[in-house]
DNA sequence: TGTCAATATTGAAGCGCATCGATATTTCGT
DNA sequence: ACGAAATATCGATGCGCTTCAATATTGACA
């Protein structure tokens, strides 16, 4: 017997109910992970993260992020805000400038969740 | 001297050019990774991947994917197509039904790329 | 306090995406 | 060949997101 009613017609011999595993992602959790991934799924934001990650001190002044990405200052400011509100980066004001750095734990969490969902990781945590 | 011209005004004492690391993500590579992540950044597609990953046999008949997600059949078909074209899942027709499974290598690649960009992984590969 | 540089916000334009109903296509069994 | 079930495609709708120019806000310093 199938877990659903899709293949129980008179003609088809049933597809044997292939879905029986334990599902951990309810609608809410799926939306939450998708939201985090959506923040990461932008070329400008990915390059911002890389600029932060590859910087010798691990942090970069916002004023040094506009030119290398070839976008306007408001656009960079917008993306930094999106990353900050998703807690994927940290920001700290020091005098005139604001310094940004990657929030490694938050990125790790998103990556781990994605691995769990896709079965790459046996959901150890 | 700064790597850009943003903080070279008369008043500000320069922000010391914090961007000096080696950047591997050019615009094209960033768009490519962002495209893959965009495919993953959808609640329905994440739950589809989990249904495939947690299925005992590792594969699920498409007919068993419509009901548990509460979306219409065209919508599920659309998402399966998106996942398939991104090569994140494999599909195989067996008789009346089509069986889907997670393409673990593709997911692994995307995850590894994300880890590299964010500095979680020392880019070993 | 007033000025200048850095950063944030606003408002609008343009594009892409998720979703559905309706319909077409494919495949099997009779 | 025909009918039924599974899957795919089409067309439309509504929402969200990226981007920019213009403007506001914030903070340092004289």
TrEMBL record, chains A, B:
Q: Short name of one Pfam family for this protein?
A: HTH_5
Q: List the molecular function annotations (GO) for this entry.
A: DNA binding; DNA-binding transcription factor activity
Domain (HTH arsR-type): give its ranges. Answer: 25-122
**What keywords were assigned to this record?**
DNA-binding, Transcription, Transcription regulation
Which NCBIfam families does this one have?
A: HTH_metalloreg
Query: What name has this protein been given in UniProt?
Result: Helix-turn-helix transcriptional regulator
**Species annotation:** Microbispora oryzae
């Amino acid at each position: 017997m199938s877990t659903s009613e899709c293949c129980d017609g008179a003609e088809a011999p049933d597809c044997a109910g292939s879905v029986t595993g334990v599902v951990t992602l309810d609608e809410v959790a799926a939306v939450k992970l998708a939201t985090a991934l959506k923040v990461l799924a932008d070329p400008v934001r990915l390059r911002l993260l890389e600029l932060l990650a590859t910087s010798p001190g691990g942090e970069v002044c916002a004023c040094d992020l506009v030119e290398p990405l070839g976008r306007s200052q408001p656009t960079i400011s917008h993306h930094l805000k999106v990353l900050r509100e998703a807690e994927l980066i940290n920001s700290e004001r020091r005098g005139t400038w604001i310094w940004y750095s990657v929030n490694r734990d938050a990125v790790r969490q998103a990556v781990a969740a994605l691995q769990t969902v896709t079965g790459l990781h046996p959901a150890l945590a």
